[in-house]
From TrEMBL:
A Pfam family this chain is assigned to: Aminotran_5
Similarity-based family: Belongs to the class-V pyridoxal-phosphate-dependent aminotransferase family. Csd subfamily.
PROSITE patterns: AA_TRANSFER_CLASS_5
Cofactor(s) listed in the protein's UniProt record: pyridoxal 5'-phosphate
Name under which the protein is recorded: Cysteine desulfurase
Keyword terms, alphabetized: Aminotransferase, Pyridoxal phosphate, Transferase
SUPFAM superfamilies: PLP-dependent transferases
Domain Aminotransferase class V: 49-130, 153-442
Biological-process GO terms, alphabetical: cysteine metabolic process
Keyword DNA repair: no
EC annotation from Swiss-Prot or TrEMBL: 2.8.1.7
Length: 455
């Protein structure tokens, strides 16, 4: 991580406890690290950015880390032995180790992708490839060898299970995989307030080969009760893929513990974790990575190429074809260092206070309907809502005019909205430097929206 005057370590200092909420003074100090706060909102007032679930703002250390790579270490990683190439390779592999360690994994378990969507597709496509017959020397095993990908094969009659809470990125790839292989797609339903209904876990049976589910909903903010679901998946011998895009910026994760409980893979999104866009990751057990056939092929991921056939590098390199997003990796490294120094436990504890403040205030707004639980228990700082008689897009425009940035639309989660009987919603979400004053500005502005359209 690049040392800057805005280092959170120098501002937050020794934490009073791993889970003690950050103080107001500490948050004020952290806000000096975020350049976006230097610019005014559309109305000329300070910007209240409440769209962290869509994309996070970046601290200056992340911005400098990405730029510093181009200034000082730009070279072809893994392709030569000159100094810049060696430095670029070190940046890439150091970032791999740092991001993996941040979520309790080993570097050998982390595959860099361009985003979390690609990471999910990587697994789904690998299962699809494994379900085809591949001759020896063409991505298949050597003649006479056992094919490790055999455990991934899907056939008609097999089942893939998802949940109604999924982002489209963790639904559409599995729909496509089911269509290509003849497998059946089934799903866990939701309760009235949008939590995963454990009463529907019985859709997981001995026919279930894959379970793909979110760790926290990007609409309701509800955290998935894994302890009530994973035992059924483990009993079925199902491969479990966990989408942590909304949990990884808010909750400490431990892939070692998750994998011990039955999770085979999880996906990460840099730009939701204070890092750059254009990079994400698949974190998976070595057993799964060894079983997955390559999906994208080309340079960097090969061992030997002849005109007749090719052999491939071991994982994770086998899944990282082509030129790497090196500067983005440097920025993501700085981002996880920043989050680790501040402490996700402390950030989450403070977020619960903000979430409670927002939920209590929203309950007082006439015509406002929450899409999700009405309390802060087992949820992250993501809150979707509708206003009677006002389109979410109009809600967003009125709030924008008041200097409050929120998300509007279906949030790439149309089945969740269909569950609540609405096509779309508005959504607020919190980050490390969200303040009570920003929550109050939102509450004041949202309370005025219906009156604006009833003039």
């Amino acid at each position: 991580m690049i040392e800057t005057p805005q280092s959170p370590q120098s501002q937050v200092g020794d934490a009073p406890g791993a889970d003690a909420p950050l103080t107001a003074a500490e948050v004020d100090a952290l806000r000096a690290d975020f350049p976006y706060l230097e610019r005014p909102a559309r109305n000329g007032e300070p910007l209240a950015y409440l769209d962290w679930a869509a994309t996070s703002q970046k601290p200056v250390g992340v911005i400098l880390a990405e730029a510093d790579f181009y200034r000082r270490s730009n070279g072809a990683a893994g392709r030569s032995t000159y100094q810049l190439a060696d430095e670029a390779t070190a940046v890439w592999e150091d970032a791999r180790d740092a991001v993996a360690a941040f979520v309790g994994a080993r570097g050998s378990q982390l595959v860099f992708t361009k985003n979390a969507t690609e990471a999910i597709n990587l697994v789904a496509l690998a299962i699809g490839h494994a379900s085809l017959s591949r001759p020896a020397g063409h991505g298949g095993p050597a003649a006479g060898a056992t094919d490790p990908s055999a455990r991934l094969r899907l056939r008609p009659g097999d089942e893939i299970v998802v949940t109604v809470a999924e982002h489209h990125a963790n639904l559409v790839p599995w729909q496509e995989l089911a269509a290509r292989t003849g497998a059946t797609l089934r799903w866990l339903d939701l309760t009235a307030d949008g939590r995963i209904d454990l009463g529907t876990v019985d859709v997981i049976t001995d026919r279930t080969k894959v379970l793909a589910l979110t760790h926290a909903s990007n609409v309701t903010g509800a955290v998935t009760p894994l302890e009530g679901i994973l035992p059924a998946a483990r009993s079925a011998g199902a491969l479990v893929v966990l989408d942590t895009c909304q949990s990884s910026p808010h909750l400490p994760l431990d892939f070692a513990a998750l994998s011990a409980a039955g999770v085979d893979a999880m996906v990460l999104s840099s730009h939701k974790m204070l890092g750059p866009t254009g990079i994400g990751a698949l974190v998976a057990t070595e057993e799964l990575l060894d079983a997955m056939p390559p999906v994208l092929t080309g340079g960097s991921m090969i061992e030997t190429v002849t005109m007749a056939s090719s052999t491939y590098m071991p994982a994770p390199a086998r899944f990282e074809a082509g030129s790497q997003p090196l500067a983005q990796a440097a920025g993501w490294h700085a981002a996880v260092d920043y989050l680790a120094e501040v402490g996700l436990g402390r950030l989450h504890s403070r977020e619960q206070v903000l979430l409670d403040r927002a939920l209590r205030g929203m309950a007082e707004v006439p015509g406002l309907r929450l899409l999700g639980p009405a309390d802060a228990h087992d949820r992250v700082g993501v809150v979707a809502f509708t206003l009677d008689g006002v389109h979410p897009h109009d809600v967003g425009q009125v709030l924008d005019a008041a200097g409050v940035a929120v998300r509007t639309g279906h949030h790439c989660a149309q089945p969740v909205h269909a569950h609540f009987g609405v096509p779309s919603s508005s959504r607020i979400s919190f980050g490390p430097v969200t303040t009570p004053a920003e929550i109050d500005r939102f509450l004041e502005a949202v309370a005025s929206v219906r009156g604006y359209f009833q003039r």
